[in-house]
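dumping this here so i dont lose it
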């Protein structure tokens, strides 16, 4: 797989890839990508994700992308990332001595007053 990252054209010309049996959703994505100028590169990225994670995770991401009408590697890799990365940590409540006692006031006119004092100088 690392070779495919460097030479994605091997997907079209390489003997090991001619009779490759990809899962159904990945096959649909590959069929679509074949007609694009950077389809080999995109499929290589998708296959590398399957190498890094698991082909079942990537196949499920391809299915989700197809249901949403998406067929680009970026969308599929985003779905894979969301499925494989842990959720963000829960927010913590700051201790009482670090909490704001007075909320800041949004006053954009302050900037006008600052600019006005320089204009008179």
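and the seq i came up w/
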């Amino acid at each position: 797989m690392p070779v495919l990252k460097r030479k994605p054209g091997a997907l079209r010309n390489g003997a090991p890839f001619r009779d490759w049996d990809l899962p159904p959703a990945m096959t649909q994505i590959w069929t679509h990508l074949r007609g694009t100028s950077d389809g080999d590169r995109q499929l290589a990225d998708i296959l590398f994700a399957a190498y890094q994670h698991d082909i079942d995770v990537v196949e499920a991401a391809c299915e989700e992308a197809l249901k949403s009408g998406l067929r680009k590697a970026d969308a599929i890799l985003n779905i894979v990332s969301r499925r494989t990365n842990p959720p963000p940590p829960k927010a913590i409540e700051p201790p009482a001595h670090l909490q704001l006692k007075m909320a800041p006031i949004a006053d954009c006119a302050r900037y006008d007053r600052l600019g006005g004092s320089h204009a008179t100088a």
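The chain is about 60% helix and 0% strand.
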